Amino acid sequence: MGLPEIAPGDDLSRQIVDARKKQGLVIREGDIFVVAHKIVSKSEGKIISLDSIEPSERAVQWATQYHKDSRVIEIVFREANRIVRMERGVIVVQTRHGFVCANAGVDLSNTPGGTAILLPEDPDRSARTLQAQLSKAFGVPVAVIISDTFGRPWREGLVNVALGVAGVAPLFDYRGKLDGSGKKLQATVIAVADEIASAAELVMGKADRVPVVVVHGLRIADHPGSGRDLIRSPETDLFR
Amino acid sequence: MGLPEIAPGDDLSRQIVDARKKQGLVIREGDIFVVAHKIVSKSEGKIISLDSIEPSERAVQWATQYHKDSRVIEIVFREANRIVRMERGVIVVQTRHGFVCANAGVDLSNTPGGTAILLPEDPDRSARTLQAQLSKAFGVPVAVIISDTFGRPWREGLVNVALGVAGVAPLFDYRGKLDGSGKKLQATVIAVADEIASAAELVMGKADRVPVVVVHGLRIADHPGSGRDLIRSPETDLFR
Predict the structure, then answer these.
(1) Do A216 and A227 sit in the same domain of this protein?
(2) Residue A163 and residue A194 share a domain
């Protein structure tokens, strides 16, 4: 669904409810709202003016070398808990939330000029809040996934993934179930919340301002859900 | 769509056409057939009997240490062009095709006992063949994506990705387009073929034997397509 421009302090759930009414969409029990993180961050005021940033020497150095804006690089450093890779003009970090992504998710598109948008403070909390508000407004339990597009090692292009999750199981565990030939399936845990986010991206479009997509008919069991479950723990991370 | 068990030499397109008829599905121009690689490999005879494998000393050593089948490990080694990581019981390789994935995509579920299924020899070629056959059979141009579920560094769970692509652009390039605030979008290339594969996985189900999913209504421009375009080149790979 299309939404008007979101500003800090806006009631996002109300905007979604209004857009739903205008567009005549029917919301049913179990529908999943995939929401681009950008409008969540905007409504939460996670916008930062570049002019307010005093870049460190390290940020200036890197920015000069790779023709970037040193203030943006400084924001990336501040949003990072840990630098994973920093070479060939690319900065991959682990954010305070635990997400490993390029530029700490700091975003310069679809923002007012001279500002950058950060990731939501706590995407799971944002998802839970929105889920409660939307479930109440629509009178049926719905789920919420807050998404962003991330790059991947080894594969070209970005895909949409789930940062915050509420009301849907982020992982579906097939282990112990039988396959078509009667053998137990092993090591088959599917990141369904990421797949739902990816599916939704196909109708979002980057430039088309469709920041909310309603996914209907998946019949995924009710589950409190958490985006944190999708973050790999250091013990199984071979690519730190 | 559900399909009967596929065996080497089976005409996969005929099986899909038959299943379509039985299930009364309408196929329209531009529909995208997402096909689990496993049935493609089976029809192409890419099944290997474990008893035919003489494991190397290295395979035996690794298998003993991590309680694996040394014959399977030997197949993984043979399918690999390059070992990316080999530790803590996990083997991540780059396959002969260029895909970086665990165990070279060698699969033991949904296979006859004592056999392993390999990736198709050339997934793009398989996709093109199937696309031509299905387009002819249905009388409208359709697209084909051959998919497999891959793990990711940093994120838990597998997601379905595109190995072979025919008739749909694997990447959608937003660069140069304007965002909602009139600024040029940068560095925004979306891996749509991977997202389509992920979307399809949500209805495939691992154990439910739904190896073909028809995606309708995406209106993605006609494009020859290639799964190779989704493989990151060594020059931009920070995680070799």
Answers:
(1) yes
(2) yes
% of chain A surpassing 90 pLDDT: 79
**Confidence check: pLDDT of A207 > 60:** no
Choosing among B81, B156, B235, which should be mutated to test the A contact, i.e. which has the most A CBs within 10 A?
B156
Residue of A47, A90, A109 to mutate for B, most B C-beta atoms under 10 A: A109
Q: What is the CATH number of the domain that holds B204?
A: 3.30.1330.100
Nearest chain A residue to B231, by CA: A155
Domain boundary among B118, B140, B159: B118
> Which of A113, A174, A229 lies at the smallest CB-CB distance from B206?
A174
Q: Is A195 within 8 Å of B188 when comparing Cβ atoms?
A: no
Of A29-43, A101-115, A137-151, the one with minimum mean pLDDT is: A101-115
| Average of per-residue pLDDT values in chain B | 92
Same domain, B143 and B25: yes
Residue of A nearest to B230 (CA): A156
Q: Which of B158, B195, B229 sits opposite A202 (nearest CB)?
A: B195
Whole-number CA gyration radius for chain B: 19
Render pLDDT for B172-209 as a digit per residue (tens, 0 to 9).
Answer: 987 777 766 677 666 689 999 999 999 999 998 755 67
- Tokens 């407004």 -> residue: A137
CB B149 within 8 A of CB B38: no
Compare all CA atoms of chain B with the CA of A181 and give the residue at the minimum distance. B110
Q: How far is A55 from chain B (nearest CA, A)?
A: 22
A113 vs B149: CB contact, 8 Å cut-off? no
CA-based nearest residue to A36, from A138, A99, A110: A110
Q: What ipTM describes this predicted complex?
A: 0.94
Answer positive or negative: Cα dihedral of A217, A221, A224, A229: negative
Averaged over A70-81, what is the pLDDT? 97
The answer to whether the Cβ–Cβ distance between A110 and B171 falls below 8 Å is no
Identify whether residues B172 and B156 lie together within a single domain: yes
Of the candidates A85, A157, A174, the beta carbon closest to that of B191 is on A157
Q: What is the token pair recorded at A219?
A: 């019949």
Task: Give the nearest chain A residue to B149 (CA atoms).
Answer: A190
Locate A229 and state its tokens: 């479950």
Residue B235 lies in a domain: no
Same domain, B4 and B100: no
List of residues 6+ apart from B216 with CB closer than 8 A: B28, B31, B32
- Better pLDDT: A177 or A109: A109
Q: Count CB atoms within 10 A of the CB of residue B98.
A: 16
Please give the model's pTM, rounded to 2 decimal places. 0.95
